[in-house]
Amino acid sequence: MVSNNKDGSACHSSLMVPDPLPPPLCGHSAPLKRRGYRLVCTVCGSFWDRDFAQADFCYSEEYPAARRHFNAGIGALKVATLRRWLQVLAVDVSQLCVCEVGFGGGFCLAELSKISRLAFGIEAVSANIEHAVSLGATPERVFNAAQLPDKLSHTVDLWLFQDAFEHLPSPDKFMQWIKNSSAPEAQLLIVAPQAQSFSDRLLGRLWPHRLPDHRFHWSLPGLVEFCGRYDFQLKQSFSPVKKLSLVIVAAHILHKFGIKEGRRILEWVPALPLYFNLGELGLLLCLSPQGRHEA
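Now predict its structure.
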């Protein structure tokens, strides 16, 4: 899935995509339709972003800084957002083994390590792993995405993807690995940019989720069907409203347009809380009886 360079950066080897592009990650074999920068699956509406799909991308040590992963104020907002989602979905993690995939700065993982029965984490950036451990995540339960064991030491009750599923270069392989490490009644919580959402259609190339590391965008039906192939069935969908701040918004704008010199401006941006959703889907899926038997 991911390989590490000598400098510690993580690269998706599969991001070197030939022209023409391969079939979409949703797995449908119907012809793709070109709509501007989108190469759209005509079955489910998921799409390749042609501006980024054929470019190599590495998660360097600069990546966390550009996304403000280590900012404590931003981390607190992310924790508050996760707590709200779990409350809305009536998911009590106190007796669950949880695994957060793509945990970024690790603030939510550290919180999960305190409030859940057991918490694992998976990340592609070594700096993020080190930061999560410094916040209280258990070192033996945090893994580099390029060095995963065949199975985790404990089966997982809740898999958590907070803006991470869209980063997977080989979601089919990863979903099979998830299924093999899942508890009989495992659940899967996914928050991700939604292809064909109102903001996607309205903003086009200016959509905030159009980034070099977001080469494929999932539609809601496409993602639900894909997870169903691994026996995770939709239990509930929700609107994942996030508690953010002007600092987060400004940081993402600077990152999107590659304005490194503007990071100093962030020190002067007020940390006012904002609540909004810019075209993201929220799904809670559960392992079906058939999947429980096979797992």
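The CA atoms of residues 183 and 191 lie 21 Å apart.
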